[in-house]
Design a protein that fits this description.
Layout (H helix, E strand, L loop, with lengths): L1 E5 H14 L5 E9 L2 E10 L15 H13 L3 E10 L7 H14 L3 E8 L3 E10 L4 E5 L1 E4 L10
Parallel strand pairs: 1-3, 1-8, 4-5
Antiparallel strand pairs: 2-3, 2-4, 5-6, 6-7
Bound molecules: zinc ion.
Length: about 160
């Protein structure tokens, strides 16, 4: 599995995460799967409902998620994953991230998780992971940004 995203879409995600720094930002990836590629067509920034621990936890607004799902379906896509930032922390899932992903895996399916470090509000490092359910851990997958269309339909 690998994550493919247009550079312009990735730029939108990074802009969002830098804007909410030093808080965690989060959102969804809408797109499709082709073979072993998860192809992001659009990113859907969401509101972090966790104001108490906004610097190191995020809770996605459920209506955001419901709207994103119906929008994706209308375009023949699905919600294929999510992203969130780690302000001034490494771009790898925390134990909390892992525990929560294991809790929701039966509902969301095989999501791709992007964790994006934001250092000092400017420097970013995106990485991507999938959940290894039996192993109860995340495994890193390639995070591929491309200049134009990720992958033409039918060519994966
Ligand atoms: Zn996290």
């Amino acid at each position: 599995m690998s994550l493919h995203i247009r550079q312009s879409t990735l730029d939108q995600v990074l802009w969002h995460l830098k804007r909410v720094y030093p808080h965690e930002g989060c959102g969804l990836f809408l797109g499709r799967r082709e073979g072993d590629r998860a192809i992001v067509e659009e990113a859907w920034p969401a509101v972090n409902l966790n104001t108490e621990r906004a610097a190191d936890r995020y809770i996605m607004n459920p209506p955001d998620q419901a709207r994103a799902e119906s929008y994706a379906r209308g375009r023949g896509w699905e919600v294929i994953g999510c992203y969130h930032s780690h302000p001034d922390h490494p771009a790898r899932p925390s134990q909390f991230d892992t525990d929560r992903a294991l809790e929701v895996v039966d509902f969301v399916g095989p999501w791709v998780y992007a964790v994006i470090a934001v250092r000092g509000g400017t420097e970013t490092e995106p990485r991507a992971f999938v959940l290894d359910v039996p192993g109860k851990m995340f495994r890193e997958i390639p995070f591929v940004s491309v200049e134009q269309e990720p992958v033409p339909a039918g060519e994966a």
